[in-house]
């Protein structure tokens, strides 16, 4: 269950990171409230995961999920550039996360 908590925390990490773009510097109330709620939920589920997972592994996976997700949403929602080098870098992040997961704790 602790890996599921970490995955959920990562999804909320993506939601608040993407949400920041919509807050326009926290000048838009509804996106701001949703973004802060995503932050709280992300930290809550990360804290639950950290009860059973090593800090370094969990933190790396949490930020990796957030990084990959925000890059994907940046490409889809905000038309950020897609290049071979960006995709290679994302693949390296995925391989690092996979390695950490396989090493477990």
Concise structural overview:
With 105 residues, the chain is mainly alpha-helical. It is 84% helix and 0% strand.
Describe the structure.
- By secondary structure, this protein is an all-alpha fold.
- The protein has one domain (2-103).
- The protein contains four helices and no strands.
- The chain has helices at residues 2-23, 29-50, 55-78, 84-103.
- α1 packs antiparallel against α2, α1 crosses α3 (55-78) and α3 runs antiparallel to α4 (84-103).
- The longest helix is centred in the middle third of the chain and has 24 residues, at 55-78.
- It is flat and about 40 Å long.
- The relative contact order is 0.16.
Offer a few descriptive terms.
single chain; 105 residues; mainly alpha; 4 helices; flat
Which helices and strands, and how do they pair?
Elements: H1 2-23, H2 29-50, H3 55-78, H4 84-103
Helix pairs in contact: 1-2, 1-3, 3-4
Helicity range of the residues? over 70%
- Percent of residues in beta strands: under 5%
Spatial shape: flat
Number of strands: 0
Roughly how many Å apart are the termini? 14 Å
